[in-house]
Fold this protein.
Amino acid sequence: MKKSLLFLIVLFSVMTANAQSYMGYIPDNYAGVQGVLFNPASIVDSRFKTDINMFSTSSSLNNDFYGLSLFDLSKSSYDANKDGVRTPLKNNGGIVYSDVMGPSFMFNIAPKHAVAIFTRARAVVNATDINGLLYDQVKDGLDDANDFNINVGNPNMVGHTWGEIGASYAAVLWQSKQHFLKGGFTAKYLIGGVNAYAKGSDITSSFVQTNDPATTMLMTTGTLTIGSSQDIVTGDEDYVFDSNSTGFGGDFGFIYEWRPDYANYDLNNAKPTDNNFKDLNKYKLRFGLSVTDIGAISYKNSKEESYNINGAVSRQDIDDADNLGDFLEQHYGTPVTVYKNIKANLPTVMHLDADWNMYKKFYLNLNGNVSLVDKSAMGKTSSANTYILTPRYETRWFTFSLPINYMEYSGMQVGTGLRFGALFVGSSSVITNWLSKESKGADVYFGFKIPVYQKKFKDTDEDGVLDKEDDCPKIAGPAENKGCPWPDADVDTVADKDDKCPTVAGPVENKGCPWGDEDKDTVLDNVDGCPAVAGPVENKGCPWPDTDGDTVLDKDDKCPNEKGLVANFGCPENDADKDGVVDKEDECPTVPGPASNKGCPEVTQEVLKELKVQARAVFFVTGEAILKTADKGETDGRLEAIKDIIKNYPNAKFSIEGHTDNVGNAKANQKLSEARAKVVMDALIAKGVNPANLTYVGYGATKPVANNKTAKGRAENRRTEVIHVGTIYEGKL
């Protein structure tokens, strides 16, 4: 009784807890069904097919009055009362919070829709505007307290326990290239437990110590209001659960994701193994906004008593009291008592969240939790304002986080969290509690669940058929044959289903059958240019053609488009000079001539006359068989003219004749005439005249053409002439 009374009078030994559960774990993309407690939108487009919570709990306590070394509590030498560090203020305060999550699950019912069902038991105790100076005076009990006179003010306390059954729905609301928005809400059926509160108004407290319990006096002024869902504070009744204490609540939230690499997740380009990229976190930045714990529980016929606590009680009175209600009534008079329906609110909070995917599996999260409840109001449970910066490393089966948080009451704290698949555990204050000698807060969470992750499907043989549907997962094969290769009995690379000759090897081009030889010419039909007509191998199985029909095959016919003789290689008899005499009978096949002259041109008088003119213009050095060089150009021109004439008559025989005058020795003149005739013949041969067409002869002075008695006549007698001496037939003259 004494301790209860002191608790109400000075409202001490209350710590505060942040009413956010699972701090450091909630930002994880693999938080699963726990994420719905923070933002209902988190469950859609998640990394889970389903996530089943078997059991999890999160509890925390923080305060701004008393700090101690939690890790030294187990040491026998550590005295928490003496070694703890106190920070008494006129308005110390705090909360105690606990959250137990029972069987719960979330499930993606469609690519853009998800649901969750959860069960939950919660408890929260708030204390605000607690005068720590008063507690500091009576911390060791009234026996050892010194005199004091303190304005206690308006202390406020509230405690509430309740259960929840929640149903959540979330959906993708908008998706456009790099922008992605989802939203969700939760409807909760609330089941009341215990609700109690106490609030003082303008309370003062003074104490006089006489070391005699009967005369040691505690004097107070002000008003104290105490209420509870059942008379469990001032009465002696045991608590009986009231099934009529129920209510409804709700949460809602939105999440926006910026996905700059959206093109990499285009479902039009997804392969079956990609599973529509459901296993991937696609955002670079994620922003969340949610409001949770909207609602209240109605407690019917709750008792509320208001006491005017003006008066004095002795230390002996306090020691003798057994029942708080009787004590208050005995010393402060009958309270004003009312029975009414009380709506106990939920600790409504607004959550703001920003998550940055820094690099691959490394993330940095910042979230703030702002209470939306008036903490000075009587009977209102609330949450402490909290801001948390959480770097983390995250994979499907493992997460390590390092939450750094600032809480409204306990200040800066650092903790850590771990997730190993189905198990998770953590604390947002454990590192601070390990290092600090005056920790003002502590929290812990842990849980066990059954996660069923979204994952990329396997296709070991990369044939486009997933292993779970592939009858031959290690050998590539078509989907039509359940991922197995089609059989090929004759091993000709043509699957039996397409092979027209499945037991006999054959090429693909012939549908797995060997090539035939329809015309039996030993050339297979696939390379036979005439598969229905026999032909030689050399002509690709086709018979050789005879285009001109002269019985000489085109391959041997030198004139394939003109009838000819076999003896002439399929060509007609030639008449190259078109003189009507075929070449084989034409003595001059390249020069036209009459048939009477065997195809050779006849040497006419005009030709002989021209030869005479040209030959007589060829001059020699006097007395020598040497062509004159002084008029070499003239002489060479004459020889060219003679050559051109002779070459026109390839079967004519010409004689080069040399003549002299009668001056000098006849024998010498004879030799000179012969030498000069030969010189002319050699010059013509040198110019290209056929030697067979030429001969030469010298006549000396025996055939004059003029009178040797005159100089003019002798000059005319000194001459050379070209004479036509006959026709060569078949090489004979």
Q: What stands out?
A: The longest strand covers residues 179-208. Confidence is low (pLDDT under 50) at residues 1-18. The two ends are 169 Å apart (CA to CA).
